[in-house]
Every structure is written in C-alpha cells, then in structure tokens.
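Q: Sequence in, structure out?
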Amino acid sequence: MPGHAPEVGAAPLVRWLRAPRPEVDPGLWRRGHRAGPAEEPERVGDRQLLGGAVLALLVGLLVWSLCWNGYIRVWLWPLLWLTPQEWRKPGGDIEAFDTASRLYYVLFAGLLLWLCGRFGRWRQVWRRFAPEPWRRAGALLGAPSAALRPYRRALLALLGAVFVGLMCASGAWTFWLEPGWALTPDEWHTMEPVAGLVFFNVYYLLSALLLLALAAWAGGWRDAWRRLRGRGGEPPAKEWAPMPERAAPEELERWPELRAAGLPAEADLLTREVREGRLGDVDYVRIERVWRQVRSRPAALAEFAAEVRARGAAAYEHPSGTRDLAVRTATHDLLTGQVRIGAAVDDSRNAFRYRGRALALDPRLLGTSLLAVGPPGSGKTARLVRPVVEALCLQALSGQAAVVAVGAARAALGPDDGFDVVIRFGDPRSRHDLDLYAGVEDPDEAAALLAEALVGAEEPATVRAAATALGQLLGPYRAAHDRFPGVRELRELLDGSPVAFAALREALEAAGEYGARRDLVARERQAAEAGDVGRLLADRVALLTRPAFDGFLEGRGRPGGPPPFSLSALQHPLRVRIDLPERGNQEAARILTRLLLAQFTAGVTGRHDRSLFAALVLDDATHAVTPEAVRGLRQLRAANAGALLTLRTLDDLPERLRTALVGSVGCRVAMAGVSTWDGEVFAQAWGRDWVKTEEVTHNPDFSGGVVKRALRGVRTLFTGVRATTRSVTVRSVQRERWSASELAHKVPPGHAVLSLTSVRGEAGPPVLARLGAGRGDGSEA
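A: Exactly. Output:
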C-alpha cells in the first residue's frame, strides 16, 4: 500500500476526513471552520470610510500622473536595473526593451492600484455598500483566487524563478557566469573548447538546480505540495482531535490505530474501501465506534478482525441492514455529529465571532434539550425539526444514537424506509403498536406514567389522586393476569363496571392474592363516592378507545395484533417515528404526546447502558408540558439524552410553566413572528448585557467676541434657530440582549434568534440566524 496520500482526485470521504475541525464556540459549524478575530475591530463611520476610499483613489491618480509625465523618475529605476544596458543603446534590441517596459508599466500600475485599495479599504467599502447580488457575484468570481490563496507564496517564488531564469538565459544578466570564468583556465576557451563546453554545461545545470532549490525553499514548495495532495492544510496546532488518541486528519483514512494494535491487514482493507469509494461516512463512524469499544478487550480483537475481513465496509452494520439514508436533505458531518441548520446574520446585534458563520446542532447541544417557539409557517418543522431528525437517524445507523420522532402525519418527518419502527395511530395498516406502560414492571411506576398522561397539567393533588386510583387497579390486575390491562379493560375498571370488578375479584381469589384484593375493594368503594377521580380518568381513557383507535394500546391482551413497541428499548440504536391522530382526535393526540414524553423520560433515565444518545423530537408539544415533564427535562442531560420541543406559542402552557420550561432547556429558539408576550419570556431568559451608548446634548453657544456674537444673532434672526454647541457623553449601561419588541417585530421571515448551550456548560449568546441551507463564511462547501 502506498505510504503517501492519493492525488487531488481523491475519494470524497478522504477529503471529508482530512478537513480541519477546530474547537469552536457552541453552535458553530466545525468542518472547514476558519478562525477570525474574537472581537470586532473598531467600526469606521460611513463618511470616513468613503472619504478615505476616494482620497486613496485621488492620490493614486496623482502619483501615476506624476510618474507618467516624468516628474518622478524613481519608479523607472527597477526597470533600468533589470534590463541590460545594450537594449537601450542605438542599434540595440529596442523591441525587447519595449516589451519589457510595457510589462513593467502594467505591473507598476497593478501595484499602485493594490496599494490604493489597501490603504483606502476598498474591500470594506464593497462589503458595506455593494448590493447583495453584486457581492454574491463577486464571491463567485473570487472563488479561484481564494482557492489559490494557500499557494500564493509558492506561486510568487515560481514566477520569480522563471523571471531570473529568463534574464540569465537571454544574456541580460551575466554576473552569474563570473564564478565559472574564474574557475576555468583561459586555455579551455581557446585551445580546449570541448572541456570548456562540458564544464559550462555542468555549471548551467548546477545553477538551474540551485535556482530551483532557492525558489522551493523561499516558496515553501514542500508544504504546498503536501497541501495540494491533501496532506497539508491547517497547521497541526489547529487541527481537530475530538479524543487524544485519534490520529491527525490526514492519517484517518489509513486507520493508524488498527495498525498500532497489530491489525495491518484489516487496516489495509479498510483503507482500500475508503479510497475506492465503497466505504461511506456512516460506515467509517460505525466501524470506528465499534473499534473504540473493543480495543481495550484483547479477547474481542480477533472477532473484530474476522468481521472486518469478512464484510469490509459493511462490518457491524445496523440491524436493519441499512448503511445510509436514501435521501439527505441537510448537510451533515458525522465525525462531529453536526447538522447544519443555517447561518448567523452579519448584524451588529450578533456577537462578532458568530457573524456570517454557519450554525449547526449536535448531541452535545441537544443533550441540554431545545425549545423552539414560533407561529405556524415560521419554519419550525422544515428548517429545524426535519434536519435534526435526519441527523439523528444517520447517527443511529452509525450506532451512536436512538431517536423517537413524534408528530402529525402531515409533518413529513421522514420517509417510512428511513425508520425501523413506524407507529400510525388510527391507521389499521400500522405494523406496530405502542406499549401503554413502556415495559414497566412496577404497578406504581406504571400508574404514575399513565396519570401524568391522562391528567396533564392539573393541580398536583389531582395528579397524585389519579396515580393512586390507577395503582389500585393496575396492581391487582397484574397480580391476577401477570400483565397490565389493555386500554379497553382499563376503561371498564375506571367506569366502575360491576362485571369487570367481579371478574377481577374472582381472578385474585383464584390466584391467592388477598393483599391485592384489598386494593381492589378500596378502589371499588372510592368509585362510588361523589367527585372520585376515577370518572375523570375514565373520560380521558375513553378518548383512546374510539373506533378509530380500535386495536391500538391493547398490549399483550390482543392476540394477533401488531407487536407493541416500548420506549424502554432505547438502549439500542433505533429509529422510531410515531404519527399522531388528527381531525377530531386532537385531545387524544395530546394525551398520547404527554404519555410519550413521560415514558421517554422514565425510559432513558432508567437505562443501564447510556452510551447511546437518546433523543425525543416532538414536532408539536402543545398541551403536552406538565410540571413533572419540566422536571424530567432537567434530568435528561445526566442520562445522555435530550428532547426537541416545538410550540406555536407559550400561551398554550399554564402561566406557571412558561418560565420554568424556558429555563429548563439549554437551547432556545424564538422564530420569526412570536408575540411580545412570548418574547418577554425569552428576553428574561437571555438577560442583559453591557453596551455603550452615546447621549448628545445641545447647549446655547455664548462663546466668542462681539463680532462672532453679532453674526450668530443675525443668523438667528433670519433662520429662527439659535446657535448651539454639541456635547457627546459615552457611558456603559445594561440593556436586554434582545427585547420583547425586537423579537416580535425585527426578526425577518425565515430567521430566528437562538441561543445554544452544551452539556459541558458552554453557553453561546443569542444569535440572529437565517435558517435553512444557508452557508456561512466559516464553513466548507
């Protein structure tokens, strides 16, 4: 296997692996990120900027006029130094001197123009005042120049070497021959011409090699060649290493860790798969993750090597047999787990280090949970939810995550073949059902989850009473039948059906469960009392037993039905999509949403293996947030899990939960069109910052002598305006980073103000961003 990297036409995965990924602030796209100044340079006023640009232009024209008309002769000295004197004598090579002069004039004019643009800050004028279409066209025209920028030093050295070689070869410069004349005897030039010819041919060759060596040293040709072939790029100090043991980016496709562990044959096989394009980014991340799990277990190395030899790029594929999604609609970087969601706007309200940069989400940010609030049509689903779901599905295929996406069928969170489990409530063709109790074995825990879903954001006393009532039914039923009741059986018990109670009592007596029978008798007695919570629970459960949901939520009580899926299975890399009912079943959808949120929180916090990142995506969490759900969101970070919730407005929540919900999540997104009431909650969450303000004061002008005062009096008489002096006071004051009014009225359509926090506590400022497939300056194509 060659020890060097392939040429420029390398496989896309090779170029992807070699891209630099420096550590950045939360939310910035890392692949191809180019660091800039941390603080904003002092802004130059428009008048000063335009005046300086015009002044530089006028000075440049004046200098050129003085030089061209012979008032300044110094600018011709380099031309006279670099051309032989014989060209300028009568009978000399006038044509060669004329060509050299014209070339020199063009170079001098270009240098003068560059100096004027540099000192006049023409580039800054272009960025500030040029229309957006012109700037985009200029960026496209300047793309080749940007691509050659890393090789500028090498190209200048090459041009310099070519120029020196031409001047020496044409005889314009003869000083370089002096050492050769000094080292050879005079007889070689007259009596031994062959010896002189051989000597000077060797001398010419050595001189050319010396010239090339000097040009290569001055131009850094070695680094340029490595960069051109993909081995260079950023200096090693800026290259990204997510873990101390991961190799440098230019070595990743060679699998150096496998070679160091004594598996060179397997490393060669995977390297060929990478370079020949048979191994994708999902395959690379999946195999690398398995390797990190087995490398510390010597007994598992042989099994790993056998799997790689047998299957190559398909080793340790996802249980579904899928190695990639059929279609990708967003830009992903699985090596960092990021998905690009847009770009920060170049706006003075944004932190300078974020302006114009691409923004991305990853599990480190989603682990703090994300809340997006915006009216319908603001882009929550298309520009935020779908890219995140797609990214989590890719990470599930690579063995890094498990995702549950919940939304209406019309939300189109992804195609059916992109998920392992698809549950369509109310659709008889659904191949899976939902476990009403999330695989919980303890009756009290199951009763608490079900009470949370059925009661919702009622008073805490009502929730506790509902959990107690459900526990008095679930415990005896499980003791009698070794399972929990289906939704229809549960409704009969909550309705206080004498037949259902009698049947359950007989089953308990037959099983000898007399302690559970006492709970059942207590529930039967309470059901006869006025104001019993069981009637409320029966009414809520009745919403789940409508004909549209026939066959769902029956668990093991319905033989031959679709297998129930339990959210306790999220310790495996599963992709789950749940379509909620619509059109007249909104209340049932709300109950199911609360149930899923409660089951997810209980399931992921109770996992023994938390190596997989578990995520719940609720496309519409309206009426699903309860006090217990808010408390559960705070526990997800420690369980390597997170939730993405979207709301149309915070007014859909009880007032006591609005501030608590916004404060419990680490990532907050205020979409365009939020109300001022919603904006007030976000403004409080983002707090205040110190800003500099200017206060201008105008005072009557009483300075000067009699003449000056008389003139001011005449001007006041004719204009009616008194002469004043202007004083400016600069002070630092605390202001809201984004006020409620700005969030409601100054966020353009398709944009959002978002703040992101990582699980390590790194918090980013609120940033105005353009959501969608936007591309920032600091991102790679």
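Residues 94-120 form the longest helix (27 residues).
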